[in-house]
Amino acid sequence: MSYAVVRMAKMKSHDLKGMQFHNQRERESKTNPDIDEERSHENYDLANEENIDYNERVNEIIESQKTSTRKTRKDAVLVNELLITSDREFFDGLDPDEQKRFFEESYSLLSERYGKQNIAYAVVHNDEKTPHMHMGVVPMRDGRLQGKNVFNRQELLWLQDNFPKHMKEQGFELERGEKGSTREHLETRDFKKKMLEKEIDSLEENLAVKKSELSALTEKVPDEIKVPAKRQMKRVEVPTGEKSIFGREKMKTERQPTKNVILSEDNYKKLTSAAEDGQRLKGHVNNLLSTDFAQENKRLRNKNKKLEVTNKSLTSENAELKMDNNRLRSKISSLTNELENVYQTTKDFLKERTNGLQAFKEVLGSWVGRIKEKLPKSEIGRLHERSEAKEKTFDMNRVKELNKEAKKEKSVQKKKDMDLEL
């Protein structure tokens, strides 16, 4: 049986452009090798007929409902993206129409629960290894964004319990994932890793655009500017080192350069234009270094490091859980053997102290019945049922053997009677 998978990721303003690029296949992905571009035409959006600008669409949803005049915080969660899917085996068992119906039923259930007016997009990807749907929910409630209230722990549990139940009622063979299983943690980690890869992909695309702009601006600024210039000269009096008959220092006039240069008007304009271009280039570089892209790059690096630490922690936790699982299996096996011994010992004890088979069965049945009243799924009850079934099978086989022996004896006796008559 396949499991229903519903995963949720929080999307802020800077995440939306990357998700738009990924979901609508607007850029060639450098981080997701699973995408088969030849099948990208099979993708579709259940909420929009054409490609949209995610930031504009989300802003429209917020502005059309919000009751406050306050601006939305820059770090606010604007979209809770739900990833709806199952395993490859499940989708292999569906024809194209049923597969589409699976996503349509998912969209119908979730858009009804969170409000169709709050669904920004519902993109189905058929060009990756396993079909899945990215559904963007803007968490609007009572005229304001309430991501923490809309998608709290209780709501996530509701999704885990009710989504597979609803889909099963629609004819899809799906089960709920195991509660507290390591599979759930690992799938969440992998999903977060993919989300981070998409963010990095978007960042790379935006940085590539900025690099192109910077390169174009750099080409406008010449590497070297040559303009003819002359030193400005002026006449100054300097001592000759000789003295007059009156004892005064003799002076002479010389032409000496000043700290100024003389340029033609055209050459002056060239230098001014080059200086302005250089200043613009400097400002552009400073803007790039101080923009969200640079800050986002730092943030994603830190986030990646945290995910690596989380990955190591989950791997270690998984190993510990496996060890605990093995210990529990061993303990359960030991307890099962112990219960079997208790049941058999009790059965032998009652058999020795009751008169007749029927009385023994009644006493044993009464003892097992009392246990089942307190513990309906008791192992003792299961052992008793299995023992009863085994005894019935044994009794039937014994009856068959006795019948065979009786027929055989009858046949032998009949032969003896015939021999005597002769």
TrEMBL record:
InterPro entries: Mob_Pre (IPR001668). Residues 18-44 have a biased composition (Basic and acidic residues). It comes from the Bacteria. GO terms for molecular function: DNA binding. Residues 186-220, 290-345 form a coiled coil. The keyword Coiled coil applies. Transmembrane segments: none annotated. CDD domains: MobM_relaxase. The keyword Coiled coil applies. Residues 18-50, 389-422 are annotated as: Disordered. GO terms for biological process: DNA recombination. Belongs to the plasmid mobilization pre family. This is Plasmid recombination protein.
